Amino acid sequence: MEKFKVIFYPDNKSVEVEKDRTILSAALSAGVYINSACGGDGVCGRCRVILRKGACSMLSAGALSLQDRKRGVYLACLATIQSDCEIEVPPESRVEFDQVQSGRSDRRLGGFYAAAEDVQAADLVPQQQQPAAAPLTEKVYLELDPPDLNDHISDLERLYRAIHRSKGLQVSHTGLVNVRLLGDTLRDALWKVTVTLARRPGIVELLGVEAGDRAAANFGFAFDIGTTTVSGQLINLSDSSIVGTKATYNKQASFGADVITRIMYAQKEEGLEKLHGAVIESINGIIHSLVSERGIDLNDVTAVLCAGNTTMMHLLLRIDPASIRKDPYVPAANSIPVVRCHEAGITVNPRALLYCVPGIASYVGGDVTAGVLSCGLDKMQDVSLLIDIGTNGEIVLGNREFLVATAASAGPAFEGSGVSCGMRSSSGAIQKISVDPKTFAVSYETIAGAKPRGICGSGYIDAIAAMLKAGVLDKDGTLRQIPGRVRPNDSGSEFVVVPASETETAEDIVITEADIENIKRAKAAIYAATMTLMKRLSFEFGQISRIFIAGGFGTSLDIRSAIGIGLLPDVDEAKYLFVGNSSLAGARQQLVSEPALARARDIASRMTYLELSVEPGYMDEYMAALFFPHTDLSRFPNF
Amino acid sequence: MEKFKVIFYPDNKSVEVEKDRTILSAALSAGVYINSACGGDGVCGRCRVILRKGACSMLSAGALSLQDRKRGVYLACLATIQSDCEIEVPPESRVEFDQVQSGRSDRRLGGFYAAAEDVQAADLVPQQQQPAAAPLTEKVYLELDPPDLNDHISDLERLYRAIHRSKGLQVSHTGLVNVRLLGDTLRDALWKVTVTLARRPGIVELLGVEAGDRAAANFGFAFDIGTTTVSGQLINLSDSSIVGTKATYNKQASFGADVITRIMYAQKEEGLEKLHGAVIESINGIIHSLVSERGIDLNDVTAVLCAGNTTMMHLLLRIDPASIRKDPYVPAANSIPVVRCHEAGITVNPRALLYCVPGIASYVGGDVTAGVLSCGLDKMQDVSLLIDIGTNGEIVLGNREFLVATAASAGPAFEGSGVSCGMRSSSGAIQKISVDPKTFAVSYETIAGAKPRGICGSGYIDAIAAMLKAGVLDKDGTLRQIPGRVRPNDSGSEFVVVPASETETAEDIVITEADIENIKRAKAAIYAATMTLMKRLSFEFGQISRIFIAGGFGTSLDIRSAIGIGLLPDVDEAKYLFVGNSSLAGARQQLVSEPALARARDIASRMTYLELSVEPGYMDEYMAALFFPHTDLSRFPNF
Hints:
The structure is a homodimer.
Chain A: E1 3-9, E2 13-18, H1 23-30, E3 48-53, E4 56-57, H2 66-70, E5 73-75, E6 80-81, E7 85-88, E8 97-98, H3 116-119, E9 137-143, H4 155-167, E10 173-174, H5 176-188, E11 192-200, E12 203-211, E13 219-225, E14 229-236, E15 241-249, H6 259-266, H7 271-293, E16 301-308, H8 310-316, E17 339-340, H9 341-344, E18 353-356, H10 366-375, E19 384-389, E20 392-398, E21 403-409, E22 429-435, E23 442-446, E24 454-455, H11 457-469, E25 486-489, E26 492-498, E27 509-512, H12 513-536, E28 546-551, H13 559-564, E29 576-580, H14 582-591, H15 594-606, E30 608-609, H16 618-624
Parallel strand pairs in A: 1-7, 10-12, 13-16, 16-18, 19-28, 21-30, 22-24, 28-29
Antiparallel strand pairs in A: 1-2, 3-5, 3-7, 4-6, 8-15, 9-11, 11-12, 13-14, 14-15, 17-18, 19-20, 20-21, 22-23, 25-26, 26-27
Helix pairs in contact in A: 6-7, 10-14, 10-15, 12-16
């Protein structure tokens, strides 16, 4: 078989592949991750690359414009290698790796905006129910009495006795490797050692023994594994402090934008292995990046706790998710046993434990359990609502007496994916926009004040609300023709937010009618799910004391804009509280507190699931919501 | 480096080795196991081989007679390979692999002889305290309700629910591999599956899931890992029945006869690995032999439970035993965590569990715990004594209120090792001997009535008692010169038990003065330990209701002969009960009963240890016992 060398820029990574392999497949082999929302079907247009040298062939042009084709743009999923090639992956096509805006200092007055980190500090959860600090893994320094003829119990029993005396804990398990090394470690260390203890359901495990006092060198990672975004936090388990936070696109994006596409991909040959490998690479990337920045030894990472939707948890552990999308839609497992990180491929301490937050159903996963935990919904007397806006939107209604959850597929638009100039809420993302109703001039704010690179989820919400208000956009999603600002494109019209001259990428940042349609569907799905859940349980918004809005929007979400486009119901704005990534916050909470881990299990066992596909009212609600803000304007009296 | 080909007969196994390698080391590489009681020091003379072709050199003749040297006999531990060779390993030098005499049908009238298997049936343990049957691993057939839209819990939770409904057990752990395979297994099997459940301290683990009804295909192995002998029993865990029993010499015999020599060997380079490999080979040999004879799939072996002395347990799990022989004599672990069999190298089902019976101290191991359990000493109202006669002799005094154990090194003579014509109690072993006081003619019985091959432990006891009675042997261990029956040899005299014309090996079966000295020391060690323990706790034999005699003698031990040589105290013979391999019986009891496992932990935690080396009276007792039956004849009024 003829082989060609392909070099990818700017990574400068090269690979040898056979003739007729797709660029996307060659890129994966080279370790270069390219966006591909549709899973290689050539319809999403997210995997544009530029051929700098060599020959590729592409039978169909897919989503490419004539202009694109003139510039040497190819769709990586459709184009095949025909010679040695040099290929550039432009910024908008890259699955990137950068820092999430943690925004702890950015809490706005009025209570509308709060990063997830701040929720714990707020008085939402009654104080007496705050769990005591008992991290899932703990390092304890011990000075043992050396053995003598009057005290000749074995090394292991001596260690267990010292642990019991110091912590009141009965160790019930340890690995053979620890017993094998114990005698030498104890004697070399002159009987002064640090033990790592892990709390697993029902038992305490001795994870490891080190010489000397290493009690402070104990770290863990909390993760939210989203369909589109993977967010991780490095936690110092000796004092529960956050050492650092990072997020990255889930590298599975190369195989499809939503969970259904990925489940289908998993059925292909090696499909499950590739999806598993991609998410593990995303996780290991965050771990290695944070650990090396802080000069921490990977062996001192002793626990990882992951929250995520049910499909993500299956792919994380290389469990076939096939049954999730087949009637009657049951996953292989909602509660996943505690395993070792290395069994999943996560490269930390070889005996470190991996905990997964239990989920409720195929479309309501452990991320929702973690979200309920972090907001304290399960402890509240008043009934509240949690709306988690992601590629899969989840809504929970309840209090300490009941919890009902539902889910709706919204697509990745609110995470800045699957839209033409979308990006995650990182440096250079436009997050606030206003449009002058007379001149149609646009003013905008970017994250970190950087030169604009694209628009993040909260930016799209703000932009559409502003365009509606300024009369640029009709309530059905059609753009008015405004010379110099709105122009025709291949599939309709597009609104120029920032001209190429002002952008980082030297290309126009635009919002197309296709983007608007995308967002309209996403917001309609979430709004309709919320309303269906409320009606099904015969609740009025007057009976709801709080509405928690969660999602990876970064530091800001303008609740008024979100109501303005019809994503959220038009109720008293004081009821809304933006809590950021509540799944990540709930994951961290469990990592540093065994009672919180038990509480999560309790939440998962108590929560019931409302399946929208069998709810008669849902489709009507959805159709009625395909309008800005809604076909029934009486529901939005303030807009 | 020059290489030579060495062929070993009768195995017909060959190996290529460098010049100057010892025959013993070449044999190990070829997978041929040769007896070597002294660990390669050339003193025990157990590793005789015959050079049939080629050249070997041997600087010192070690324990070889002139006659041996003329016949081409070499000591495998001293002789080095100098050319291509063909070497014969004679039967007496082989570490053999054959069936133990289980003797369930051989219980003698009068209660003196009972195989370990029968103890359970006797009324020693009060009935109400007999544990209910709950094997450590259990297969349960389940017919699950398939999921539908009204019952859409996940596959794993569905399985756990069915287990709970069927058995009332809450599964708290399973391996990732089971979750990965679960969806397909359940659906392919149309929701009719068999689960394997394992009971571990504090938790129930789901070990595996199989299609269809396989509830009856569940097996386990109980092992007694002795310094000299490894005995294993295949148990059908679905009904607790014994499927088969086998024993073999511990292949570690190639590295030394007693635990001290082996601990020293373990300190050499690769020494620990070799000792570990040898015992694992012995274990796997028994497993594979029994399993293939019965046509059982190795994957259906789901649990292995081992009892053994503390050093054996360390070597079994490749834990360095060094600290056992260094002041203050503490092992790495008395209680070893439950691990997977494959972690130790035992080749059964990959997820099968390995349980080790907890020990008490460096020289009182889990074999004693198991022995106490099987005799029911820990449940008795009356005080009893357990004397376990092996390479290490252990004595326990106690009842349901107290348990005190001690240990003395006796050497392997009673297991038919380290004596010139010794063998295990298998087919062809002489087990009963009488000597006519006038003609000095010998009559004897062999196991299975086969042609005599050697003398087993109970045979030696019987022989010495008979020789004392007939006046052939003096009370100090000197043989009378009797032409045709007693003759001089290299180091004194020897008694011809069976002439070469009648034996399987076509060589005389003899008892030498060196053998007699060996047995005298062994019996003195055990008698002295028993007496020291009794005195230390101020007990008289009148206060003891039962004396259990345990050991791998096979089907028979003549208690009268054992008293006659001074091995056992001269008390009312009705108090004695021979219980055979009580360690193996106790191991099996735990394998088939979780309450027995808990009871063993309780015994180990309650039993205290009396260290003889710091007991002032022990040495005097030992010296006084170096006589047949004793220097103080008033202690043996009936002899």
